[in-house]
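TL;DR need structure tokens for one chain.
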Amino acid sequence: MENNQNHIIQTVAAVMTDSFRDDPGSMAMMEGIKEPEELFMAHTLLHSMHAFQTKSLRILDDDPRGFLIGYDSVHENKFLERKLYLKIIMKTISCLGLKNMKRMLSNMQKVGKVLNLSWYKEHIKGRHYRLKVIAVDKALRGSGAFRRLITPVLEYADQNQIPVVLETHNLSNVGLYEHFGFTLVKTITHPCTEIKQYCMIRYPEEVKIMQRA
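>> reply
TL;DR here they are.
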């Protein structure tokens, strides 16, 4: 059982690292950092362990090479979220030397200008589903894996009549999510960085029908 848990966490972390290494937000955060691979993998391991422990990790057909991380806001644990980010900070300090740490802090300050996880409060109140990560190993792409991962979440949201919210820093993801009914409602920009945060919402089917009526 423990070996299987470790296998899932390690595989999820590896796929997450490969999928988001070239993401604009990740690249901006790691800009100028010497040998960032170790730090990036350490971060994804922490995220993977957290998702597994909080039951916010959904595996594709028992294959951790495809996964989704997300949760209904009624199950959100802010204490554990703060604990995760504290672990990330401590791991970052332990992995980086003084010079790299200074550069990381500078990068974080710039990216932080467009990083806002509370943007959705301008558009919706109350219960919602937060979609944090979907990643699929290159070997599974083109197999319908993404659709099989996201469809149960959208069905769950429709059944409970709650919106799904997400943010991405990759413009190419916007069209993909629009295909699944998401709408780009806000783009966060700042003059000090080229990074943009694209904020998207998918409203439940019943609400969308009422909006069109």
